[in-house]
Here is the input.
Amino acid sequence: MYGEQALAGWAGVTDAVRASGGRIVAQLWHVGMARTPGSGPVPGAPAVGPSGIAVDGSASGLAMTSADIDAVIAAYAEGAANARAAGFHGIEVHAAHGYLIDQFLWSHTNRRTDGYGGGIAARTRFAAEIVAACRAAVPADFPILLRISQWKMGAFDARIAQDPKELDALLTPLAAAGVDAFHCSTRRFHPPEFDGSDLNFAGWAKKLTGRPTISVGSVGLDNEFLQAFQGQRGGVTDIGGLLDRMERDEFDLIAVGRALLGDPAWLSKVLDGRVDELRPFQRESLASLA
Ligand SMILES: Cc1cc2nc3c(=O)[nH]c(=O)nc-3n(C[C@H](O)[C@H](O)[C@H](O)COP(=O)(O)O)c2cc1C
Here is the structure.
């Protein structure tokens, strides 16, 4: 989210979205140790992360210095201000899926001993400082979302919070730093996050922080889901408890990803009960914008 030409391009995109009555939020990323060697604007640069350790455990990059950390925090703030100037309705800080911020959150990739590593509070500090810097760079009513996940690309069983107490320790400083809503990434929205409760990840995040939350994961991907849509509630049934969960305010929004890549008209077809016309998601959908 920088550079005159790119920002002018984004302004065209946000204008078009606004003209169609939509809303658009820019997701700000740094991939850290997940960078493909040789890629990006400086191909020869090494991958960097909290400790130079990749999600697979290999020591394949450099540990960030405190000057690197300050520079990345400043770049996020600049990105937030640029996104607002380019017409976005908000930003989402990508702190999930094993990319840079998540590499700080996870003890497996963060072995620092300098105040940005150690216990949960220290591992959360980098994310909280990024959120605070973004918050200071945009007006108070400009939404800041934060995407967070237990799972990582290449480590689906990873966990950064073992129980609700640890999740609280992780999320509370982020809410205090200025997160308006948490986007809780799970591969399936319905499994309980912790033993002893039906709440999913987004449900726990809302309960612990009081912030609105977005849930996600496999909506519209299986046949059972599509067939069941033809049932009750004016064409929509309660798949996997989704509607029940939303009606009892477990979380506030549900995100839909691959089903929309398979069929951009997915939502209007579902709302109109035209389930027979839905085009299912297939791998080839990833190579198409149609
Ligand atoms: C092609 C593709 C690209 C994605 N890119 C991103 C991304 O840039 N940032 C992100 O947070 N998640 C990304 N995701 C994950 C999705 O946001 C979403 O969490 C995931 O697909 C699960 O939702 P679904 O089951 O509705 O598809 C991507 C997923 C796919 C399939």
Q: What stands out?
A: DSSP finds eleven helices and eight strands in the chain.
